[in-house]
Amino acid sequence: MEFFADRAEAGELLAERLQDAHDPVILALPRGGVAVAVPIARKLDAVLDVLVTRKIGYPPTPELGVGAIAEGGEPVLDLALLHRLGMTPEDVADVVERERGELARRVRAYRGDRPLPVLEGREVIVADDGLATGGTARAALRAVRGAGPAKLTLAVPVGAGETVESLREEADEVVVLLTPVDFRAVGQWYDHFDQLSDADVLRLLGRD
């Protein structure tokens, strides 16, 4: 069974699969995706920044994601799941607004007043540390697609096979190193999978 020592090693391995990228912009999904993206950006000598996303949780059980939102994009809701839960998009409107506020706070924390790099006409690689349901990655890809990139790639070390396949509809290319049959959680495929703080993100970006 294959495992990654940590996110940095996973990023190094991903970078080897991305060397044909032409002058890309790397957008990392905080927080864990930043640790994966740093070695990719270093290897490709690429611009690196964050693309902030927020999960939209099911109100009675916020840990259950019913959608996500990324900066510059609209909320992406799992309408089939909402239907099974007996809910409509209007039922999570308050959650969406709350997450918009937290998203804006994190953008200020990570980037200050600087805008995202120009993405139109560029090759863009969206990086994260893994894919479970893929909700935040889907929201991120749709937000980036709206900015008009020349090519949009999703790069992750590990992901659930069904999720990876569903996201091929959103990206021009999906680069993934492992799609284990017995996937249960992203963290199980790393020897070290510490939770990162905002301070960790800023340190990794050289903005502390």
From TrEMBL:
GO MF annotations in UniProt: glycosyltransferase activity
UniProt keywords, alphabetically: Glycosyltransferase, Transferase
InterPro entries tied to this protein: PRTase-like, PRTase_dom
Coiled-coil regions listed in the entry: none
Pfam families in the record: Pribosyltran
Keyword Transferase: yes
Positions of the Phosphoribosyltransferase domain: 9-174
Protein name: Phosphoribosyltransferase
